[in-house]
Amino acid sequence: MWKAALVLLLALGQPLWAQDDAPAAAITPRDCSLECIRQGGPGCEYCRITRTDLKRALGFNSIKVFGSCIPWPCFKFLGEEDPKICQHYVQAPNDVKVEFVNELNPKSDTIVVSWKPSYYGIAFLRGFQVSLQALGGSSVDCQLFLFHRNLSLEASHAQRVYKSDPFPSLSLGSQYAVTVMALPVPEQWERFYKSKIFSTRSCAEKNGLEQCEKDWYPKHVKVQQEGTAITVTFNLAPPKLGIRSYFSLCYANGMKKYTDITPNSSNNQTHHSYQLKDLQEGTNYTCEIAANQVDAVRKTFYVQVLHLQKDIIKEHLESGTQEEVMPLSKNRPTPPRLLICYSSRDGPAHVNAVMQLGAFIQQHMATQVCLDLWQSLRVAEEGSMAWHCRQIRESDFILVICSQGLNHRLKPPEGDDQDDRADRGLDFGSNAFSSDTAVQLIGEEVGRAKARGQDLSKYMAAIFEYSEETDIPTELRLVSHYMLTSDLQLLFSHLHGVALHRPGHYLKINHISEEGFTKLPAGAALQLAIYEAQLAMMAKWHQSVEGGD
Fold this sequence. Notes:
Elements: E1 26-27, E2 30-31, H1 34-39, E3 47-48, H2 51-58, H3 62-66, H4 74-79, E4 94-101, E5 108-116, E6 127-134, E7 140-146, E8 161-163, E9 167-171, E10 175-183, E11 193-199, H5 203-207, E12 221-226, E13 229-235, E14 246-252, E15 255-261, E16 271-276, E17 283-291, E18 299-305, E19 313-317, E20 323-326, E21 337-341, H6 348-364, E22 368-370, H7 376-382, H8 384-394, E23 397-401, H9 404-407, H10 418-423, H11 432-451, E24 459-464, E25 480-484, H12 488-496, E26 501-502, E27 505-509, H13 521-546
Parallel strand pairs: 1-8, 2-3, 21-22, 21-23, 23-24, 24-25
Antiparallel strand pairs: 3-7, 4-5, 5-8, 5-9, 6-7, 6-10, 10-11, 12-13, 13-16, 14-15, 14-17, 17-18, 19-20, 19-27, 26-27
């Protein structure tokens, strides 16, 4: 009489008690006799049904017929005296949750399921059935819980939390589907159950990364650069895991560089350093490092090979007849890390100018540039807002490219429609709003640092030649601001802490002067991008004037 779609299963295994530290508001199952349930005796409000109860109620050994589970026998348990008790409307439970239970076995997980009953039909609620199935498998485990026949819940009882017995011995790192069904189940009804898909914890999540050979990966990777020499240091696996060799793979522009790594454990059992060789200058590499094992988890890191040999500072005497080459300070083990923030509301031409500026700074100003346009995969993995917040914390310097769109980000024009939003660049990157929010966060940090009398040198503002100083937001007018490209040398001085002038001397940085930067391909590309962005800005201004906006 039951439709196939409504045939669900119940547990036959010996039940276990739920957690001892369950919240006081949660109701956990009890051991009750069938007679107590049928007669409505005290202490039988919420009872588990065991394998013995099933055999006694059905009159045969159900395991041989149905395997580990059988269909829900409503009429056999509660409906023989009053068949109508199994025909009332009861809606699916709410707020189904899965909780992990602490256990000693490091190779498996145990869960307890909790839920709240729906107030629709709650007066006729007779119990719950909970089933658990491994996704992609046929294994099913089920539990059945009943109220005694005289119990009638009120609508206020929908806030009660009910719990299952524990489901033990679940495989780590696996997906399961748990279904909680309200009883009784009417034949012509589809909303009587609630399902939830969840994953058990990985070995690393439950036991710690250092205990799991399959899940282990180097968590700490440090990259150091001296000229074009790249040294990578990473943490080794604990000796008890038996991992003896590693590998790294770096790739960029269709090129791959594979490196075998075999540490000598007698030298250092915790860390190892190796050299990355034959990487091309001026190239950004994405690298991975992992244990040299099948399906090993890989740790991703980034290497940016700079044109350091081109960044030469020449110290000139004011007489103009002598000059002396002065190398950059070696006090900093790695190039300064610069985060560039901007608004894409001024259109794709402005975004392109920002990207070309980042490329020029990285190639010819001995600086590691962080730009969301270059790390779209990482931004997608972390989320745009989380990525910007992390970069704000980890960067040595932050440069905000100010423009009309950025300064007016909080004041959308009247008559704003979808076409207008697209014109302002919202379609040119999903990070527009997050970038704007990041700028607000930067402004707040600047204000707090100023109020505390702290150093503000981490923060800078800049405008391109087609923007105005009034485009710099009020909160950023406390920090150093530059006009680009005429102030490239000043920006270099800020990033590297070198003075452009001192008594009797001045510094000249090759290829960064206002007249010299265009001799480089990256400089010419930057100049063209700024020119095209200026034309786009003028065209947009004329369009707005003609439209009477």
